[in-house]
Design brief:
4-stranded parallel beta sheet, 15% strand, elongated
């Protein structure tokens, strides 16, 4: 869709840009003719749109994975704008992909450092000052029609950064930080897809600028916050699996918002080391299943929070299928290059991950109380205890519907042995 990457065009003359446009247009035109001969109407229409697009404007992509705010030359941008004016063609400038906002994390989610955002704002101002279309932001594998504005990108970054800032200012331990993130995402976002524009519910910019979110959005939000925390004691990956629910027309099941389906599902795989709570291991966390519903407007607690990986095989009325690329995801979480590892080590690594000890209920209860004490500073200890107990009761109710009697996580064990009451 793009005629040039920014780096390949920035120093070209107007004539060189013009010659390349003619070459590309001719190439696409040949594709159109071939599609017509083969009666491939859909492809013909697609290539025609591309032809119209690249022949009527100069479309340039800034590769955000390689973008360096300090090295970006504003004068070169002005020269490019002047070259386009000589050709009497508008310039459309896109920021494509993501960038590194710390040394350990690369993101295609339009999450940038402050320095990068400031430079992108300057670029946008230059375009507008020269009567051109504003800078557009486009995620990988999406079309220009799905592009974001700089205002939308800034809001997404501000929302993530505000959560990160609160965690740091509160001096939360890694386990407390994870509990807080889970509380934020499950109490803020209600599951709702957008059938007309799926990216709205599946990207950080989309979900922070709408009321749409699905499992992918929940998982990416959690990962984005953890990535920006940039701590070796709390590391996150997204994990894709296939889940099939077998229970149909169960009033309690549906009342909890646990939709019956057979589809792909995304969760978070968390590696944690917390000295305060003496927790170390790898766990699954599923904010989507704990998210708010009409019946639970503050979220459904911690029933699907930080449970052992082995409990993926202990769902109640849900069949679990081996996640795609599970091994690479697990190895990545442990900072291990799958191309460099001795195959004999793989079973040991996977076994260690599977055998991460379940987190005791007493530790989870203490952690939630610590988080709530920060969230509700004016509440008495008695009121905090009441809120914690209510949260745990809701969590047990949800967990009992999700996990069977073989589950090893403490919430599920307690749920199957308790008579639950909500006060």
């Amino acid at each position: 869709m793009f005629e040039f990457l920014y780096s390949s065009i920035v120093n070209q003359s107007a004539q060189a840009i013009h010659d390349n446009m003619i070459f590309l247009s001719a190439k696409i035109n040949k594709e159109i003719e071939q599609c017509k001969k083969n009666n491939e109407n859909d492809l013909t229409e697609t290539f025609q749109k591309i032809y119209n697009y690249i022949s009527s404007s100069v479309n340039v992509a800034i590769n955000m994975y390689d973008f360096n705010s300090e090295e970006f030359d504003e004068q070169q941008l002005l020269n490019l704008i002047n070259n386009c004016k000589q050709l009497n063609l508008p310039l459309n400038l896109y920021a494509v992909g993501g960038t590194n906002f710390n040394n350990n994390s690369e993101s295609s989610e339009m999450l940038f450092s402050k320095e990068t955002l400031d430079k992108l704002s300057t670029i946008n101002e230059i375009l507008i000052k020269n009567n051109l279309s504003p800078l557009k932001f486009m995620e990988d594998n999406h079309s220009p029609e799905s592009a974001w504005t700089i205002e939308q990108v800034k809001k997404a970054n501000n929302d993530i950064d505000s959560v990160v800032k609160f965690i740091k200012e509160s001096n939360f331990s890694p386990f407390e930080a994870m509990a807080f993130i889970h509380k934020v995402v499950t109490s803020t976002f209600k599951f709702q897809d957008d059938p007309d524009r799926s990216i709205m519910a599946r990207s950080i910019v989309g979900l922070t600028n709408s009321d749409k979110i699905v499992c992918v959005g929940y998982s990416k939000f959690v990962k984005a916050v953890i990535n920006k925390l940039n701590s070796s004691d709390l590391v996150c990956e997204t994990l894709v699996s296939t889940l099939r629910t077998n229970k149909v027309n169960d009033e309690v099941f549906n009342e909890l918002g646990l939709v019956t389906y057979s589809t792909g599902h995304m969760q978070n795989l968390i590696k944690i080391k917390d000295k305060k709570y003496k927790i170390k291991g790898v766990y699954i966390s599923d904010a989507c299943y704990d998210a708010k519903t009409d019946n639970f407007p503050s979220g459904k607690g911690y029933g699907n929070f930080m449970f052992p990986v082995s409990d993926l095989l202990n769902y109640n009325d849900i069949s679990f299928y081996q996640p795609k690329d599970t091994l690479d995801t697990l190895l990545s979480l442990c900072s291990i290059d799958s191309t460099q590892i001795d195959e004999k080590q793989i079973p040991v690594i996977k076994e260690n991950i599977r055998n991460s000890k379940p987190i005791p209920l007493s530790k989870l209860q203490s952690c939630i109380k610590a988080v709530y004490s920060v969230l509700f500073p004016t509440s008495s200890e008695q009121e905090i205890d009441r809120l914690v107990n209510k949260t745990l009761n809701v969590s047990k109710m949800v967990s009992k519907q999700i996990f069977n009697h073989n589950a090893k996580n403490a919430i599920a064990i307690e749920a199957h042995s308790d008579t639950l009451q909500l006060d």
